[in-house]
Structure formats: structure tokens, C-alpha cells
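Example with several molecule types.
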Amino acid sequence: MDFVSILSIFVMACFVGYYVVWSVTPALHTPLMAVTNAISSVIVVGALIAGAAQGSQVSKWLGLLAVVLASVNIFGGFAVTERMLAMYKKKDKK
Amino acid sequence: MELSASSAWVPLAYLIAGVLFIMALRGLSSPATSRSGNRYGMIGMTIAMVTTLVTHGLASMTEIVGAIAIGGGVGFVTARRIKMTDMPQLVAAFHSLVGLAAVLVGWAAYLNPGAFGILEGAQIASHSRVEMGLGIAIGAITFSGSIIAFLKLAGKMSGSPIMLPARHAINLGTLALIIGLVGYFTQAQDLWVIAAITALSFAIGFLLIIPIGGADMPVVVSMLNSYSGWAAAAMGFTLHNTAMIITGALVGSSGAILSYIMCKAMNRSFLSVIAGGFGADAGPSGGPAKEQRPWKRGSAEDAAYIMKEAESVIIIPGYGMAVSQAQHVLREMGDQLKAKGVSVKYAIHPVAGRMPGHMNVLLAEANVPYDEVFELEDINGEFAQADVAFIIGANDVVNPAAKTDKSSPIYGMPVFDVDKAKTIFFVKRSMGGVGYAGVDNDVFYMDQTMMLLADAKKMVEDIVKALAH
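Resulting C-alpha cells for the full complex:
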């Protein structure tokens, strides 16, 4: 992909982010931070490529360490979001 | 089966992952759809990881699965065990990990550019060097900044601002140096350049967050959230990976919007928060308020008696409620009042607590239904009709000086109109400490105010006991 197509995706995604985030209810701002944290760990993709590549042992181990760190975030972030969201309940209709 | 990394399915899979992440955030527009949103996020992450593994990872599958298991295990156990009141420092800690991971990935790409497909001849393509340099710089700032935020939030380091002499000059100089080095990196692909970028960025992360005080932490945490997104986006540019770019843009804008909302709720500019030092020397602006003024002390029994006879009670929680873990017993108090026919509502200021939405999570944890919890602008008109405003662990967000006193450091900040309520109960540890901003609060001395001086949890427990009679 050339630079301009990538840049287009980035700019469009910024706009999507802008509108989607403004529609998030303030009561869920803490789960929003936890889940954005989890998904920003998609950087694990870069870590996996480095960890799997041959050619440089240093690069490989840096990659594997990054996989560990990103995995903490992925599993921790989604799990803690799930835990928080499960607590939000409506009034019991009796 | 090893798929070729150039197969047309591969970018498509990353695109789908990106779209699922958008849907994950979209789900958060209401608590009812939020949990399915979170599932979309998990599916998106699984797609991104599996795609990468089948296209690149088969050669070192054992090590990689081991790494995921170690990290995943630590993350999962932490997420299950963490107390809800510790959520701000957990989020800060998680941000630091994203930052460090970005730095490591940047370094790995520098040391083995062939594996990342960023070579142009024998050299790394120059636009890739800019992206890599920026990714490492933002990642390193996110890492060290989040470490300081974590230490401050966890109480392992003084929450008060720490001021260095000439810090603005040092900070701006360091930033300029980093940008200059990233530019130089396109000319010379030397190890020392990237090492210097990394080291300086770690340093500026520390320097930026150290002078920022505890109550400005909602802005800091949001800002670091944003940075972690931009770091992921920069790495996405390096790797030409749509999932990373979309996610980075989403997270980056999310954090930026949250910072904006937090700043607006304090009527402070983003720059003044970053410049730091708020609340360090509020002495002179506090003005002549130091004279002794008469105030009334109430007891748990008084509070129980008046609230039980009231028609409507509005509860305003603040950071003090989180500190004393009073949310559960507060909900019990609310239940007892409701059983006696009193209308009970909770009013939450955007900057209450140490991170956006902090109070909402704690009340949700204590089983307070979310439709009894209101935002500032939705409930502020109701204080005039309310019989009781019950303030617990909050202070600056109910200070009328923000509306009237132009010399006050919190002037212009939107606050709750508690002074319009018939009776005000102010739960506070002692009369000595003033709010974070260091300003006196006229609400203490109003005719309809009763100060309930005790630890928040202890006081509410006593009220619950008194209500039971």
C-alpha cells in the first residue's frame, strides 16, 4: 500500500473515532479507557512479526518481550472491561 | 497451512479487525449494548493475532504461545483481582505497557528491517524511519509518563506537584531535540540516533508528568490514553497495517476527546494543565477567607432524621468516597431512604475522582442502578426542588466561588448548585483541610449546612444505623 492510501485510512479513522467517542455515555468513560487500552495493544501484531522473524536474535527477543507486555494488556484490558460492564444494572422493575 | 503474507485475504482480515474495534467503542454508547461491544473487540483482537500468526509466526510458534500465555495469565489474574477503587492506577499501568511495547517493536523493526518489509535497497526507507522514530518517541513518553501517573495514583509518590526550576525551558528544549533527532534519523540510520531519541523521550515523559498534581490526573490519564493510541498508529504506518492504523486513530481521538471534556469540566486550558503546578501555591488567591466563621456541626442522627422526612435527596460523591470505600454503605443508605418513600438520586461531576467515569464505576460496583445516576447538566436544575444535598468526599465541585469569585483559582468551573437545596449535609474528615484547589468553600458556613465531620464510611454507617430505628 502506498503512503497516501494509508494516510487516507488514518484520517478517516480519526473522524470515525471522533464521532463514535462523542456518542459514548459519560457513565462509561472508565470502561472506555479500559477497552481502548485493550485494543491499542493491537501493536501485538508488530511484536508477533518481530518475535517470529529469523535473522536477528536481539530483534526476536525484543519482539517476544513486547508480545508478553501487549498480552498483559489484551487479556487484562478486555477482562477488566467485562467485569466493569457487568456491574452496570438498571433499576429492578418490580 | 502457512498463508502467504501477500495474500489478498490478509489485509481484508486486518480491516475486519479494525471495523470490529470501531463497533466495540460504538457499543459503549449505552450500558445495554456495552457488553456485546466488548465481545466485538475481543473477536477483532483474535482475528488480528491469528492472521499475523498464520502469515508470519509458524517458525517460532512455541516461544510465541509461551509469551502470550505468560502475559495473558498475568493480565487476566490482575483484572480479576483488582479492586474497583484501584482502577485509575491499573489503567495508568496498562498505558505504560502499551508504550513500552511500542518502543520494543520500534527497536525490533530497526534491528531487523527485512522482517518488517521496510527495506529500500540496503537501507530502511526514509519515511519508515520517520514513522519508526515517532512511534518510539511517543511510546517512550507514554511509558515513562504513565509510570509517574501510576506512582502518584497508587500513592507511592507524593500526589502534589513537584516543581523543577526552569522546567518549561528544559521541556521545550528536550522536545525540540527529539524532533530534530527524528529528522536527522532520515539522513543517518545510526544506532546512537535511535538510542538518543529513546532516552530523551523517556526523560521528557517523566518531566512532563512530575509537576502535575493529583486532581489533574483525569486529564493526565486521558492524555496518556491518547498517546498510547498515536504510538500504535505510528507503528501501523511502519507496518502498513490497517488494523493498527484504525485502532491507533480511534484510541488517539478517544483520549483526546476525554482530555478535552475533563479540561472543560475544570474550566482550564489543556496547556495550563500540562504546564502543571496547579494547587501548589493557592495561598494568595484563597484570599482573606482565613478568618473564623461560624459553622454548624451535625450528627448522624440529625442527618438520618432530616433525610427520612425529606421528599428528595441528591447525593454528590467525590474522591473522598473512593478513598474511604464508602460506596457500598452509601447504597445501603440510599436503599433505606427509598424504602421510606424518599426519592434518591446521585449527581456526578465529570472530574469527580481520579479518572473519567471513576465515580460511576464505583456506584455501579455497589449495585446502584445506572438510571439513578445523573450528569452535572442533567441534574443541576433539580437542586432548587431538592430537600437535601448530601455531599460526600467532594468539595471543589460544589464550591459557589466558581460562579461568583473571579479571583478564585476555580472560577468558571461548572459546579453543582447545592446552595439552592433546603438542607446540605457535608461529609468531611475535618474542618482543617480545604479542597484540592486550596480554596475555602462558602457552603461550609451557610445557614442550611450541617457539617458531618468523620471518615465518610464511618459516618454513613452511623446514618444507616440511625435510619434503622
